Amino acid sequence: MSSTPHSYDVVVVGAGIIGLTIARQLLNGSDLSVAVVDAAVPCSGATGAGQGYLWMVHKDPGSEKWELAMRSRELWEKFADDIKHQGIDPQEVLGWKKTGSLLVGKTSQEMAALEGKVKQLSKAGLKAELLSSIDLKEVEPALVIGHEGGAAFLPDDYQLDARRSVAYIEKENRKYATEGRYGEYYNQPLTGLLRSGNGKVEAVQTSKNLLCSKKAVVIATGCWTGSLMQELIKDLGIEFDVPVKPRKGHLLVIENFNSFKLNHGLMELGYVGHQDATLQPGAETSSVSMTATMDTSGNLVLGSSRQFVGFSTEISEHIINQIWERAREFFPTLRYFSPTDLEKNREVRVGLRPFMPGGKPMIGLLPGLSNVFLAAGHEGEGLSMALGTAEMVADMILGNLPKVDNAPYALHSRCT
């Protein structure tokens, strides 16, 4: 235990993509000092296990999240452009690539839904096209969907590599350490909040250090936020439900895959319902739908699954086989392989997405504590909504006018 406390303006708890981008936003956009605390290290959770897409093709322009998703996309584009203007290749440091995305359907009913999706996205200001099965043969020769099928195509969607992006953001944040404005406290679980009489949290206690927070504390601990907050506030006389729960996901990565190349990111239409489905937490029920990307290293990344099985991150070969079988329905070339053929070349990523009932993250001030903010519950959209979330939280802390309406994410309406 440290006898001498360290003092910062803001303490951010959580070093996933949400926590690190909040720290980045505050460091770049103010003169505040920031500490980042994590029970493990960056990319230990959902961030490191994700597929790395920044796609709008499966999102709903009528949803409350749309504005935040669009703002985040705009900020990612600006981030990549700024890197380019420094003479650095954003593909090298972020894995940034404009691949475009395809939302694929096989039946005439799915094709009708995709036609509606294209109209909806076009009306919302995005460049969107409806591709027939013949069009798809031209742009994605390995994909086979039958003559009735087709796809919604967004040519301006992007992919990135979450691990590379996190490493670059960390490197950029660390430049402020020489000014005494930045500190990292990894492998240090948070053990308590120290509160003053006026409701303000004045410090956070980790397993090794006492970190004073002069202005704010931000909790951005992904799927652990619900259980962590339950522990932290039980001694503070506050009753508040943070219903963030872990939703397990598997991805199958085939390294140096060369049997075919993908030119775009792909996702079956069924993914939209499977993402939005409010399965009963605690149930063993799993859902699998086809997603496929090829990363900048030439690895084939196949997904994806969703399960409620608590905090377990054990690999399930049954789920991996389901992902493989689902992918083979869209890419017949894969039928020449079995999962055992590729065992030497495979990586399995297992992550716990922070699931929120209703599908919206919690972003805002925690009722009962005058300077503690939550930013959690982004499910599988943490990467795509990170920069907008970071801007929103920083604006709240700094007292700036919001760029995006933050009311849909406010915590007061979640109180029990």
TrEMBL record:
Give the UniProt entry's GO cellular component terms. Answer: cytoplasm
Q: Which Pfam families match?
A: DAO
Q: Which UniProt keywords apply?
A: Oxidoreductase
One annotated GO molecular function? oxidoreductase activity
Source organism's superkingdom?
A: Eukaryota
Which interval of the chain is the signal sequence?
none
Provide the FAD dependent oxidoreductase domain boundaries: 9-396
Q: What does this protein do?
A: Required for the assembly of the mitochondrial membrane respiratory chain NADH dehydrogenase (Complex I). Involved in mid-late stages of complex I assembly.
* Protein's name in the database: FAD-dependent oxidoreductase domain-containing protein 1
